[in-house]
Amino acid sequence: MSSTLLRLGLWTLVLILALFVVRESYSEAPIAEMIPQRMLEQAMMVSASLVVAGVALKVFEKGTKVVSKGKTRCTVCGKPVPAGAIYCREHLRNMLEREDHRTHGGTRPR
Ligand SMILES: [Zn+2]
Are 74 and 81 in contact (CB under 8 A)? Predict the structure, then answer.
């Protein structure tokens, strides 16, 4: 859905830019009168907002996908965690504490 919107917006934008160029290059020809500047500007606004909406939707979809997928889980308890994380907050703290003990306690040279 978001990629369709994005593609549609981008293609419209390209088309309008092409029309702008045509209008500028053939300002003497009757084709320029067939493309009112006001219409082009409005179309540009619409396509630009289409692109913006597409990008926003894409980000949103990505966010919900990560949550609904639940692919990344805590390796200890299986709780869903944010992408890239190995442990849930609780276990991450445990692991860090353990690491801290190992590196700073006991084995520290006197
Ligand atoms: Zn956990």
Answer: yes
- Record the pTM: 0.48
Looking at the structure, tell me whether residues 59 and 81 fall in a common domain: no
pLDDT band with cut points at 50, 70 and 90 for residue 93? very high
Between helices 37-69 and 2-25, what is the axis angle to 10°? 160
CA 88 to centroid of ligand 1, rounded, Å: 4
Residues 61 and 78 in one domain: no
Ligand 1 center to 85 CA (angstroms): 11
- Name the domain count of the chain: 2
Structural domain for 99, as ranges:
70-110
Q: Is the dihedral of CA 37, 42, 47, 52 positive or negative?
A: positive
Distance CA 44, CA 38 (A): 10
Same-domain status, 51 and 23: yes
